[in-house]
Amino acid sequence: MKNKHHRQLPPTDAHATADQRRRASGANALHVVPPDGPTGAVVDDSVPAWVKRRVLLLNATFEPLTALPMRRAVVLLVCNKADVIHDDPEGPYIRSADFSVQVPSVIRLRTFVRVPYRARVPMTRAALMHRDRFRCAYCGSKAETVDHVIPRSRGGEHSWENCVACCAPCNHRKADKLLTELGWTMRAQLVPPKGPHWRLLASTKELDPSWLAYLGEGAA
To answer: DSSP 3-state helix, strand, coil percentages of the chain (rounded to 5)?
Structure first.
């Protein structure tokens, strides 16, 4: 029998109740006011920084769940499904005819969500960089790429136990050689990371500093 206190993930806009749709009726007509006026900071030549902004979503137990687009985060707040945990004085405002809210950095669900258990964290470039703290596994300088300790050309696997963050000079010098052939040693043991927050780190490279308290040591 299902625990009455456990609920599924918050419904998407398509499955929301009529009351929730009315309360979030401005979602499709929300107007975003950038933090620095009409343009805001720029990520690249054409995309303002606030367009790519994400908000950390916590479970009712403060376990990190995912990084939401800011519009979806505001809808959860308007529908009274989540509460603000950390404000962001520099965040953009989202306005409609009925309300105005500054996009926060961290929000928390009001009801508990049961997350399916997955034993192994998927290995992505972002997660690998976080595990190795953006430092080259061979020399300790700033990492720029990913290297296979045992080259794939020599039977190495693409796995947590055989991949490391690496700087460009070390990657070039190592090429398809083994560490024993170069006389190199590893700076740390290669192990798969563990913990629910690593699923978020696997898909998010840039982290808001206010998130770190909820993401464990691997995010520091």
So the answer is: 30, 20, 50
Residue 10 tokens, joined: 């918050």
User: How far is the CA of 102 from the CAs of 62, 107, 157, 180, 207, in angstroms?
Assistant: 21, 12, 46, 55, 19
- CA dist 215 and 65 (Å) reads 10
Architecture in CATH of 118-204:
Orthogonal Bundle (1.10)
Q: What is the mean pLDDT of the chain?
A: 77
Domain residue spans of the chain: 13-115, 118-204
| pTM confidence score | 0.54
* Mean pLDDT, residues 135-153 taken together: 96
DSSP state of 116: P
Q: Any residues with CB less than 8 A from the CB of 53 and at least 6 apart, and which?
A: 69, 70, 91, 92, 103
HEC sequence for 60-108: CCCCEEEEEEHHHHHHHHHCCCEEEEECCCCCCEEECCCCEEECCCEEE
